[in-house]
Amino acid sequence: MNARIDTSARAGGDKRRIVMLGTDFHTKGGISSVVNVYRETGLFERFPIVYLASHVDGPASQKIRYFATAWVRYMAMLLMGRVAAVHIHVSTDMSFWRKLTFILPTYAFGVPAILHLHGADFDTWYARGPKFKQWIMRYAFDRAASLLVLSQSWRKWAQSVSRNPSIVSIYNPVRVPTATEYATRDAASLLFLG
After folding, report:
1. At a CB cut-off of 8 Å and minimum separation 6, what does 142 contact?
2. CA gap 142, 135 in Å, rounded
3. How far apart are alpha carbons 85 and 130 in whole angstroms?
4. What is the pLDDT of residues 159-194, one digit of tens each?
5. H/E element holding 169?
6. Which residues have a Cβ under 8 Å from the Cβ of 75 and sit 6 or more positions away?
7. Per-residue pLDDT tens for 94-120?
8. Which residue of 2, 29, 53, 107 is most buried, as measured by CB atoms within 10 A?
């Protein structure tokens, strides 16, 4: 289900935006690492993207506040017709259930959703779940405009559980320093790939 993303002017001169949902920029983990590379390389300046952080490290009260604020803001944007598409970074466990509260209204409004799967145990989390959880996961995956995974092996797994024709593997980005960043250093540099 490939959908065209239209960000053309709407009634009243407002433009629709691409919404990206993820974790706070300062939160530990893979999602924030990926999003921070997007941010550092200027993605949010080049495209009409509104970033909504639905999770943060910290006490439960702060987590609930972040989630509620993001959810209310997103629902308002959906109701006003301001969402052209949504890119949802999702992992397993509570990340999936939290993001499902954004995914289902997105589908109800007919807005294209890109689900970007993070996490190293989607396969075991899926397999050890009850049939109802597996059905919900397949429902979310099948109806996405595109399902992004982090490797070819994850793509094969996703194809084994989802009928979505648009499952794409996109490796995590890395910001490559410019030559001038190296030229200003006096000490030797060590390159480590892992």
Report:
1. 162, 163, 164
2. 10
3. 31
4. 999 999 999 999 888 877 766 655 555 666 667 777
5. strand 167-169
6. 105
7. 999 999 999 999 999 999 999 999 988
8. 53
pLDDT of residue 11: 42
Q: Chain-wide mean pLDDT for the chain? A: 87
Tokens describing residue 25: 């920029």
Q: Cα separation of 154 and 150, whole Å?
A: 6
Side-chain-facing half-sphere of 175: CA atoms under 13 Å: 14
- Give every strand in the sheet of 49-55, ordered side by side: 49-55, 17-23, 83-90, 113-117, 146-149, 167-169
Contact by Cβ (8 Å): 111, 86: yes
Torsion sign over Cα 140, 125, 70, 4 = negative
In terms of C-beta distances under 8 Å and separation of at least 24 residues, what long-range contacts does 155-159 make, across chains too?
Answer: 157/122, 157/123, 158/117
Beta bridge partners of 22: 53
CB 43 within 8 A of CB 49: yes
Report yes or no: 31 and 37 within 8 Å, Cβ to Cβ. no
